[in-house]
Amino acid sequence: MTRRAIFMFGLMSLMWGIPYLFIRIAVAEISPATLVFARTSIAALLLLPIALLRSDLRPVLARWRWVVAFAVVEVGVPWVLLGTAEQHVTSSLAGLLVAGVPLVGTVIAASTGSRDHLGRGGLLGLMVGLVGVAAVVGSSLGASDPAAFLEMAVVVVGYAVGPAILARRLGGLSSVGVMALSLSLCALVYAPIAVVQRPAVVPSPGVLAAIAILGVVCTAAAFVLFSALIAEIGPVRATVITYINPAVASVLGVLVLNESFTAAMAIGLGLVILGSVLATRGAAARTTDASPAIRDGRALDTAAGGIGRSESSG
Question: What integer is the mean pLDDT of 199-207?
């Protein structure tokens, strides 16, 4: 990779590794629904003008049903559940659990026939990844609310289904237009809930800063930068960010919030990453050999999945 690509890659890994920390900070004083409204509205206000200037919204609106479906499974439901879960689990643990998204995505892709069936390597990767997830969950189950793990499971599934919708039903559309409209829809839906659940007092400066960073940096700016990174190095190599984000989230949780990070969690993370690499390696090779049109369509898939996984995505 060029120096420019390496810089963009490192910056993206940070941008989509820090949301878990700031979500944890924000939901200590505001409701998860209020956070979703604030984050989506800020990002939508920044992305909508870009989409309008580029005339991206008209073709996106023609497929509004799938845009709604994508907004629900990629943003609307996962983000509120992620915020709810982080009221009971550490940001480090949340980041580790979201690392399982590639595993679920591989299962969905194989079961729906979008790619070749899993070979031995893919099945081995899934088993290794599941052992890793079990290690992470098992090491934290006694100290966390079990309901939070169910919420995180829904988050992981949503983050895996969202890119599938984007690639198969919204392929060929402007990714900026799709995300701008999706975020706008979520902001409108959560607006009345945010009004009802508004905090009794103005949140602390730290929480307000966390909200601003989540909306501006981790959503709007990160999405634009990730699109540029895909253009620079391609969608396959860009997905490696998925394997770095959980480590960033864990380190920040330990350093900033004094969260615990056990040996079992470290081993589990390693197994999840190894399993994800094994499970997706064959698909990555097929994407590399695909035609430019197919690669472009999967670039949209990758971009959406990256945002989901940061919250993300984060």
Answer: 95
